[in-house]
Amino acid sequence: MSRSAAGAPRPGNVQPARRVAYEVIAAVRETDAYANLLLPVKLERAGLHGGDAALATELTYGTLRQRGYYDAVIEHAAGRSVDKIDPAILDVLRLGTHQLLSMRVASHAAVDEAVSQARQVGSRSATGFVNGVLRTISRSTPAEWRERVLAAPRSDDERFALEHSHPVWVVRALRRALAAEGREHELASLLEADNSAPAVSLAALPGLSKPEELSGEPGHHSPFAVTSSGGDPARVPAVADGRARVQDEGSQLAALALSRVAEPRPGERWLDMCAGPGGKAALLAAEAVASGATLVANEVVPARAELVRRALAPISSAIQVTVNDGRLAGTETPGHYDRVLIDAPCTGLGALRRRPEARWRKQPKDVPALASLQAELLESGLKATRPGGVVAYVTCSPHLAETRAVLASVLKRHPEVERLDAGAVLADVVTHPLDLGESDGTVQLWPHRHGTDAMFISLLRVPR
Question: Exactly one of 191, 349, 396, 410 is catalytic; which is it?
Answer without folding.
Answer: 396
